[in-house]
Specification:
Blueprint: E1 11-16, E2 21-26, H1 29-35, H2 38-49, E3 63-66, E4 81-86, E5 93-98, H3 102-108, E6 113-117, E7 124-129, E8 132-137, H4 146-157, E9 163-166, H5 169-172, E10 180-182, E11 186-188, H6 193-199, E12 202-208, H7 218-233, H8 236-244, H9 249-256, H10 277-283, E13 285-289, E14 299-303, E15 313-314, H11 319-325, H12 334-347, H13 351-366, H14 385-397, H15 401-405, H16 409-416, E16 426-427, E17 430-431, H17 441-449, H18 463-466, H19 469-476, H20 493-510, H21 525-536, H22 544-564, H23 576-579, H24 595-606, H25 617-622, H26 626-634
Parallel strand pairs: 1-6, 7-12
Antiparallel strand pairs: 1-2, 3-4, 3-6, 4-5, 7-8, 9-10, 9-12, 10-11, 13-14, 14-15, 16-17
Helix pairs in contact: 2-20, 2-22, 11-13, 12-14, 17-20, 20-22, 20-24
Length: 640
């Protein structure tokens, strides 16, 4: 019997690599109506099967490839997927999203989700073709980079249209922030999903499907998608994004004093134009590509045509890579950054955490906390490109000081000691991305409270960063809340973060791109309600107010997972660099983050205990989550 709601395949593929067996099970209906799909539905399965006793790199941990009900449809940005697991970098909730065309292929092959558990004795890859599933030997490709792996797996599959997720050598060597790559330049970059995959000796997942996604109202969806395209094309910010991609944020961040520089010490970089989007577009642009069903097409390909790095073609270059290996390392050589981007993609490693780890070590070197002998004789002066590239190789191979950095900045700082923790810029073990709460207060609160650690993508409030005053008035009542659009004020930031976080939770249950929700701010929760109703036919998804409650439920599910892992208020914090060190230069000069004020307000809005950060029992009751509350109490957590 088909699944009762349209948009879903109705099946989950479970793969046990220890037993070398696969099975299909029905999509859990009891979760769908409360959690929709995507990372939220994956979180329900993770909650049921992975607890505090589970080592993230053990066979008992799960790796979930998740889709949403709109995945594989024509709706704008419905081509994205996500991975859900327990992070080997942080030891808590992990999710990492990726673009491209892989996720729709999973739906076309007949599945809403792929769940992998266990560990193979030998390297393998998973072949999925329209319901036929095989566990194939990967011994011949183990040790190879992502680009060659993708090519070889596709050739062995015998279908050039097969979609591939793969890891490189970083995942094989269990670098704690190894990425999983698709296409092969689209990254599920954060939280170390590549290490989870490597720990299972799973080199790749290859999928080909010839089915389709059935929707409840095809004509209605077509008309609304046409309207969505019109709204995108009429949006100036979306068209700027189409031209420049996310590299345009280099200039945006510099303008407001939020471009991370010298290990987040500063917010402005004198040579920002050398690594900015205008130069990249004029001198390096080679091609533009889009993910499945996307009208923006933000993926930019840049080629280095001369010099030391001539011949480098870097795919889907992002702002986060440009800052991580540019301004944050005091490196203005954009040729080298493009080379590094391609290198990291092939190795399968998160550019944010890699760049942050190198920045941390460079500052420790500058401050005399590590000697030249302790860093394998490398000259770790700021901006030393050769040393940066050599450190990447060492991290991936876990050689010398690279073995230390492969553990992430939190563990590395603890190992070095001597006060090195001060220069480890992370939250809950996840290295901070390209934002700074001193210039952008809501980003500071977002980093402190996000479930996976320093994460800007679960509740990025752009109205106080980019000045969308009309949008702020519509979404938050900003015309009545003075200060909400002021990036250097704590006023009403807790409210904005809470609302955005709930909306984004629904977005991630559908799994659509954050672009067009906040930057540019084209779609909102009422649009999500309309799309979900058109796709699934379910009236319970048609009310935006009900969706907001579902979003709140999803946020509390992730919080419950982390509380069970031991996370408390003390962990919802920021590095002292943001809370105690005034910004030295730029538009945010002299600013620090008053986190405690925002955190108190945020907890009150969430109805979490002010002292512990644990959701109150009445919160779980209101959200229909008594089963979660009871399980927490069974695990020894005392609910306030």
């Amino acid at each position: 019997m088909s699944f009762p709601l349209k948009g879903y395949a109705g099946k989950v593929l479970w793969v046990d690599l220890t037993q070398q067996k696969v099975k299909e099970v029905p999509l859990p209906k009891r979760y769908v109506r409360d959690y929709i799909g995507g990372t939220a539905l994956g979180g329900c399965i993770l909650w049921d099967h992975v607890g505090p006793q589970t080592d993230p790199l053990s066979p008992e941990n799960l790796l979930l490839v998740v889709t949403g009900p709109v995945t594989g449809t024509i709706w704008h940005t419905s081509g994205r997927g996500a991975l859900v697991s327990k992070s080997p970098l942080t030891g808590i909730w992990a999710e990492s999203h990726f673009g491209g065309h892989f996720a729709p292929e999973v739906k076309y092959a007949g599945y809403d989700m792929i769940v992998v558990k266990g560990r193979s004795d030998k390297p393998v890859y998973l072949k999925v073709e329209d319901g036929k599933v095989e566990i194939k030997s990967a011994e011949g490709i183990w040790g190879k980079g992502v680009y060659e792996t993708t090519k070889l797996v596709r050739e062995e599959f015998g279908d050039e249209d097969a979609k591939i997720l793969a890891i490189g050598q970083a995942g094989e060597n269990l670098v704690r922030y190894a990425a999983v790559m698709s296409a092969p330049y689209d990254a599920a970059g954060r939280t170390g999903m590549g290490a989870v995959m490597g720990s299972k000796r799973l080199k790749a997942i290859a999928v080909r499907g010839f089915g389709s996604v059935k929707v409840a109202d095809p004509e209605g969806l077509m008309e609304f998608t046409k309207e969505a395209k019109r709204r995108i094309l009429e949006c100036e910010q979306a068209m700027q994004q189409r031209k420049y991609g996310t590299p345009m944020l280099v200039e945006v961040k510099q303008q407001i004093g939020e471009l991370p520089t010298k290990n987040h010490w500063n917010g402005v970089f004198e040579e920002y134009e050398k690594i900015g989007s205008v130069r990249l577009r004029e001198e390096y642009w080679k091609a533009t590509k889009a993910c499945s069903a996307c009208f923006i097409a933000c993926k930019k390909f840049f080629e280095v045509e001369s010099g030391k790095f001539a011949g480098t073609l870097a795919g889907h270059v992002e702002y986060e890579t440009l800052y991580a290996f540019g301004s944050n390392l005091m490196n203005a050589d954009v040729d080298s950054i493009l080379y590094i981007d391609r290198l990291c993609d092939d190795y399968g490693i998160d550019t944010i955490s890699t760049g942050a780890s190198i920045a941390f070590l460079m500052e420790c070197y500058e401050k005399g906390l590590v000697s030249k002998d302790q860093v394998d004789g490398l000259d770790l002066s700021w901006g030393n490109v050769d040393a940066i590239i050599e450190l990447i190789h060492k991290i991936v191979r876990r050689e010398g000081v690279g073995n230390l950095l492969a553990e992430g900045v939190k563990r590395a700082a603890e190992k070095i000691g001597k006060g090195a923790e001060k220069y480890a810029i992370h939250v809950k073990g996840l290295e901070v991305s390209g934002q700074d709460g001193r210039a952008h207060r809501s980003a500071g609160l977002t980093h402190a409270t996000a479930a996976r650690g320093a994460d800007h993508l679960r509740s990025l409030v752009t109205v106080d960063q980019l000045g969308y005053e009309d949008v702020a008035a519509e979404r938050f009542g900003a015309d009545k809340l003075p200060g909400i659009c002021d990036g250097q004020s704590e006023e009403y930031k807790a409210l904005a973060v809470k609302i955005i976080e709930d909306v984004y939770a629904v977005r991630d249950a559908m799994i659509v791109c954050w672009y067009s929700v906040s930057w540019p701010p084209v779609f909102w929760i009422d649009d999500f309600a309309k799309v979900l109703k058109l796709v699934t036919g379910y009236e319970g998804f048609a009310d935006p107010r009900e969706l907001m409650i579902m979003g709140e439920r999803m946020v509390n599910l992730k919080r419950a997972f982390n509380v069970r892992e031991g996370i408390r208020r003390k962990d919802d914090t920021l590095p002292e660099r943001f809370t105690k060190e005034p910004m030295p230069n730029g538009p945010a000069k002299g600013q620090v983050v008053n986190l405690e004020r925002m955190l108190n307000e945020y907890y009150q809005l969430r109805n979490w205990d002010l002292e512990t950060g644990i959701p109150k029992r009445e919160t779980f009751e209101r959200l229909g989550m008594l089963d979660i509350a009871e399980e927490l109490e069974k695990s020894g957590v005392k609910l306030p």
